[in-house]
Design goal:
Length: 423
């Protein structure tokens, strides 16, 4: 029997969730409407499908909140292993969509297990760290936790879904909160900086720049590091610079090379650059035009000429934010950003209030995954980062993404309800 107190949930998080999902559907409607009459429940159009997905979302929410909170911790390892099996099954039964074998075809619909694997991994990481019952500062514990994160990420990468693979980097924030040594942060930032320098200026110049910075740090840091350590760091930086250039030129597929080249402005030939823009940067260029055309107030609901004219391909999925920019303007874009920021801050606030380490770690996992999706999608649509192909959480079209983020968030709401009910 469900106790009466078990109906106490954090309604602020739930309301923010509903506002984001609702506003997302309104923009999917605008981006996918083709004129004429509208059958909101028709499976022949995107907004009709999304509305059906939303209805099933409420069923999922009821089920998630009805399950005892202890179930999620007790069976987190089982859930994680099932998600790994679902990813492995794609190599045998997966359907290829847009070059990625990331989908199961079930009847007339498709399901993307990599979306659900993020929630399963968040549960597994929370279980691993809570079982340690301490900060994650032991090297053996760190390796075990890294394996839990890397295994699904590697399987997703082998399915040619680079965007979803990058999302698993979100767990770095979780581990850092739980005591991961700061030198991992230093290493991570250094690798990113060296990689960008090597691609932009070449391995030789990148090595010189990094070498000067390391030696400069050695001199002004009052010898907190030895000269031998400094030279070793320079050698690693040189090796990484040439390795990144080799990987970019010899390993990455041509279309991914072109996307990075456009982002870093590497192409010098004007004719080839223009050709690349017409192919790989077409979506981005049209997206930026749509956002700019919206101005401050926007053109109004279903009044966006670039949206109704279908100038932006796949606008109802990864580029849904451009619909917001054109039809709702700066004010609409600001509203979306504010809603996501409030949701993230609320989840982080609740995570810090948790009495259970498992619940706290899982809460940070939820916030980190949403943050990475939000950051990459908005940055991609505005041209700040390369086109990767990551949906805006709860906002973009898609049943798998909507249901996966619903599961991710409402498991945490259920875990948090224990704290509320015990108060």
């Amino acid at each position: 029997m469900i106790r009466e107190t078990s109906y106490k949930f954090d309604w602020i998080t739930i309301i923010l969730f509903l506002l984001i999902v609702g506003f997302g559907w309104v923009n999917i409607l605008s981006a996918s409407h083709t004129g004429g009459g509208m059958d909101y429940f028709s499976l022949s159009n995107s907004y009709g499908k999304q509305l059906v997905f939303i209805i099933f979302t409420f069923i999922i929410i009821i089920l998630l909140l009805a399950i005892d909170a202890k179930f999620y911790e007790r069976f987190s390892s089982v859930i994680y292993m099932l998600s790994i099996l679902s990813l492995l099954g794609l190599f045998l039964f997966g359907k290829n969509v847009n070059g990625a074998t990331s989908w199961y075809a079930i009847g007339g619909m498709t399901l993307q297990p990599s979306e659900f694997a993020k929630a399963a991994t968040a549960l597994a990481v929370a279980k691993q760290i809570s079982d340690l019952n301490t900060n994650i500062n032991n090297f053996r514990d760190q390796i075990q936790t890294f394996i839990i994160i890397i295994l699904p990420a590697l399987l997703v990468l082998l399915q040619n879904d680079t965007g979803s693979t990058i999302v698993y980097g979100a767990f770095f924030f979780v581990l850092y909160r739980e005591g991961l040594p700061k030198y991992y942060l230093t290493i991570g930032i250094s690798v990113i900086v060296i990689s960008v320098l090597a691609l932009k200026f070449g391995p030789a110049i990148a090595s010189v720049i990094v070498g000067i910075l390391i030696l400069g740090y050695y001199v002004i840091s009052k010898k907190k590091i030895t000269l031998l350590q400094s030279l070793f760091a320079i050698a690693l930086a040189i090796g990484l610079s040439f390795a990144v250039k080799f990987f970019y030129q010899s390993v990455l597929p041509p279309h991914q090379q072109d996307r990075i080249s456009l982002w870093l402005r590497l192409e010098k030939d004007p004719a080839k650059l223009e050709a690349m823009k017409k192919t790989f940067a077409y979506n981005l260029n049209e997206s930026e035009k749509a956002i700019r055309s919206g101005g401050f107030n926007g053109k109004g609901f279903m009044e966006g000429t670039r949206t109704t004219g279908k100038f932006v391909p796949e606008q109802h999925t990864d580029y849904i934010f451009s619909t917001v920019g054109e039809e709702w303007g700066f004010l609409g874009c600001a509203l979306v950003v504010i809603l996501f920021v409030l949701l993230l801050l609320r989840i982080l606030h609740l995570a810090e209030l948790q009495k259970s380490q498992f619940s706290r770690v899982y809460g940070y996992g939820v916030a980190s995954i949403i943050f990475i999706h939000f950051l990459i999608n908005i940055g991609m649509v505005m041209g700040l980062i390369p086109t990767i192909g990551i949906p805006l959480p709860l906002f973009s079209y898609g049943g798998s993404g909507l249901w996966a983020f619903t599961i991710l968030i409402f498991i945490f709401i259920k875990l948090d309800s224990n704290r509320i009910n015990e108060w």
